[in-house]
Amino acid sequence: MKWVKGLALMAGVVSLAACGNEQADEVSEDNPLNVVATTSMIADLMETIGGENVSVEGLMGPGVDPHDYQPSTSDVNAMSEADIVAYNGLMLEERFVEVFEQLDERGVFTIVMADALNEGELLDPEEDEENLEYDPHIWFSVSHWETITAYAADQLSEKDPDNEDYYQENAEAYLVELGELRTYIEERIEEVPEQSRYLVTAHDAFQYFGEEFNFEVVGLQGLNTQTEAGTGDISQLADFLVDNEINAVFVESSVSPRNIEALIEAAGSRGHEVVNAGELYSDALGSEEDDAETYLKMYRANIDTIVDGLAD
Ligand SMILES: [Zn+2]
């Protein structure tokens, strides 16, 4: 009968282990979900909605260009061990394509921001953008970010149904703040005369902003920072500045200012004075020192820079 006793003992051990596991699975402040996010905008959103139930690791800090970012071995390890991997999609993280495929194969739970939107809500890239099917800079539409907020809350709730109410409450509170942000943007934009509502920047990150808030947006480089601006583009855009009497252009925190400086020079050689009106956050949030470390602060900082640069 010795073996029966052994079996019973083993069964006891197994059920004990299962019980222990179950307790460890309960998500709480002491046992948060491990979330790995690619860009800082996404890390901020996951922290906001996940609150104390998540521990978020953002792979790309201030000033980092996601089009160009190559995931390191430790990034890949962090993603494969994460409870949730959150990323933008639409080829923003161009060098992550294989890693994302591997995560899918391994069954890692992913939240893809672009999945919140349907095709009709996405902007098409320009014809010469070979690698992109859609414009990936979806966070600059506040209404898209609202849709994405609701989607992320639903996805977090799917992963952790016990805390659904908590995630939904956090999302609702955040949607109120996004509404306040929209009001702030609309009010400040009123300070810019309609004929001056041109946003000329280093690369084409602001089309969703332009569509939502009626700005004409021109990026010196295309949607993808890896396509270089040629001297032809610079001289064409210099003509555009002259023709439309545009006196202010903007650099971006995650793109070298070199091309914008060349553009200012080219306009100057046409007898048209253009100033560098400051730095915008495009594909990454700022630091705490910049007071631009959250999506809400980043967007306000951008609007202040844009309006102060373009208002009379
Ligand atoms: Zn970009």
Automatic annotation (TrEMBL):
UniProt signal peptide: 1-24
Phylogenetic placement of the source organism: Bacteria, Bacillati, Bacillota, Bacilli, Lactobacillales
Record-given protein name: Manganese/zinc/iron transport system substrate-binding protein
Keyword Heme (UniProt): no
Record organism: Alkalibacterium pelagium
GO CC, any one term: cell envelope
Lineage: superkingdom: Bacteria
Family listed: Belongs to the bacterial solute-binding protein 9 family.
Main location: other
Gene Ontology molecular function: any one: metal ion binding
Entry keywords, A to Z: Metal-binding, Signal, Transport
GO biological process terms held by the UniProt record: cell adhesion; metal ion transport
Subcellular location: Cell envelope
